Hints:
homotrimer; alpha/beta; 2-enoyl-CoA Hydratase, Chain A, domain 1; 10 helices; 46% helix; disordered N terminus; mitochondrion (chains A, B, C); acetylation (chains A, B, C); isomerase (chains A, B, C)
Amino acid sequence: SVPPGVLPLCHRPPAWGRAARQPPGLPLAPSRAFSNNKIMVELDESSGVATMKFKSPPVNSLSLDFLTEFSISLEKLENNRACRGVIITSAIPKIFSSGLDITEMCGKSTEHYTEFWRAVQEMWLRLYGSNLVTVAAVNGNSPAGGCLIALSCDYRIMVDNPKFSIGLNETKLGIVAPFWFKDTFVNVVGQRVAERSLQLGSLHPAPEALKLGLVDELVPEEKIKEKTGAVMAQWLAIPDHARQLTKSMMRKAVLDRLLAHREEDIQNFISFTSKESIQKSLRMYMEMLKKKKG
Amino acid sequence: SVPPGVLPLCHRPPAWGRAARQPPGLPLAPSRAFSNNKIMVELDESSGVATMKFKSPPVNSLSLDFLTEFSISLEKLENNRACRGVIITSAIPKIFSSGLDITEMCGKSTEHYTEFWRAVQEMWLRLYGSNLVTVAAVNGNSPAGGCLIALSCDYRIMVDNPKFSIGLNETKLGIVAPFWFKDTFVNVVGQRVAERSLQLGSLHPAPEALKLGLVDELVPEEKIKEKTGAVMAQWLAIPDHARQLTKSMMRKAVLDRLLAHREEDIQNFISFTSKESIQKSLRMYMEMLKKKKG
Amino acid sequence: SVPPGVLPLCHRPPAWGRAARQPPGLPLAPSRAFSNNKIMVELDESSGVATMKFKSPPVNSLSLDFLTEFSISLEKLENNRACRGVIITSAIPKIFSSGLDITEMCGKSTEHYTEFWRAVQEMWLRLYGSNLVTVAAVNGNSPAGGCLIALSCDYRIMVDNPKFSIGLNETKLGIVAPFWFKDTFVNVVGQRVAERSLQLGSLHPAPEALKLGLVDELVPEEKIKEKTGAVMAQWLAIPDHARQLTKSMMRKAVLDRLLAHREEDIQNFISFTSKESIQKSLRMYMEMLKKKKG
């Protein structure tokens, strides 16, 4: 099977022009934040640690543009020899990411659904299969796709605030998490916790998420940067090559499963999303969100 | 593979005559307990919640008749659009179910063993693959097949009494739980707990069962009905279709494994059960039970 | 697939000459310690419990000779009808086993690497697939291959001393635990704990090992013999045949995976070990160990 690190990106103009075509391994300017729209990427060359900070108001929803930028940014870091680890966090208060952007799934063409879903897959394949050490600093709510991003990292630190919750709550919207969301969830919390949590579409407040193993530790908000750095240093103390081979061995079966069924998964998404009943659910959900805001 | 919901029942006269041939979806009379011998079934049409109450003295053992009635009752509820969830419990004090009826496995013909084992498979395929929300209210001892029924539900509430225990204790009788009992057990408690518990044939007192994750919560006996209703309401708050697809995704691999090996599994059961050494073990065990009673 | 109990041993002169060719089932002299070099084997015929005590100074490292002796000793016990269980422990203070002997992996021929790795596989196939009840009394440090031996037993009791630790720390040496070490680890602690522990190459102090489920209980050093005996008696109370079939059912998938990929696994080991970068890491590690001692 094709290793996820060499998958072709979906054919869209990259968010920052030709930058994405930069040859692998060419280092970025030291510690320079490179320009893009929705994700701030900063690399500290002395430590080899990059930070990807989501800043797509209001709620860091995973639109096609966001996902594309995410995959390109991660690929860029992956190909940069100066980079060994990446911290994923949010620049927006109280929200890590609200998950997939529902407007991308409502009233659009089959072509659009195809492109969107491929970008969701791409994001996950790159992140779950990343050779970098990946640490999620979950500093706000993290439902659905936001939870998937956190689950795909090597380690999850969450702000110790019971108002912030995390989980795959798809069923509550009348939709179903795809099998690879489920596989990723099971690999973190085990079959039983997953079975219950996914069926109920539970959003677990931080203390409960810790108890279930959905996150690895909780820290006060003001300590999360420091703590994330310390965890990253611990993981970077391990020789990269041995750690990468071990990570790949642990995750390969689940990555291979999507790679083997990628087109079917896209077809499933399209046929499910195109159903009038699902479109109706999603529209109602968006109305509810709008009213909440208003 | 064939979805478990449409498996043909084994060819026996159904326990309440033609009732089982009722076309799918035709609603029962509102909240009427329908007559049968070993399981009392009651449907509350206002909530959509049915209760299956085992009342087969002395110990709700899973005879061929009991199993057939179970599968037919469940199929009937499954086909009744007014029904969305089922609570499984016992009407007999101190016992949930004692498991497979050993008299069905002793000194009988190959034809009988075949029919019996197919009915055991059928019961599990229907319950584990049920589209309904299934909650076990374990209000007494629950060894072997009794434990399997509880494990096959979506949620398990047990009476908080250390005198009641639950587990797959087959090895203690010199027999072996089949692979799909094992798969069901592993899906609830994980590989390690299962490996130890199944080898030792452990019956876990309620507090230990909670600790191991074999049941989800303990409640005082007088609260079990109220609590079970509350849990059911929580599960019914989720849109059925999304919950059902999610449940199927979580359980499909294990269901498919039996469906793919159903006839082999029957042959294994017959050849194992027909062994003189096993027959002797089972006869000795029955003698012991008789003496205990006397 | 070939059941592990009948695998041909690698073609080396057995450590104690023709003894290994003794026909299966011929009992040893009652409770006689039989002579060999690196492992003391004692069988108590009254209880059916053997003890394999590692006594290969300084640190019970798993050399080719040690591994061969281990496999032959275990095969001998397996074939001895008087033996139903085996306790595995160390006669050397503070160390259970330091794992694979790195000198066997440094500057040797391809033939040697092949023979060595086959012996490592053999040891695991026999132990993980053993029909005997296997209890590890971990009375000292147990890194890497030492941990694998403990993980392959049915039950692990560790001395309650935070100075003793256990884990698969391969990544810290720049090497990678093979897939079947990983599978064995996952079967004990689950996917998530394994993913983190294997990537970090963690050595868990006894109390942490207990918390993670890596060992089943901790006892004071002076109680370990008594406790191990009590646990063994509990397991021997179960009819052998039912317990063995259950154990085999639980472990078969993981055993079969190595059996199906045994030669590939040897080739992987050789090509990895032969790399100059790996040889360098291993030489540096050995230098460090020498300095530590000196």
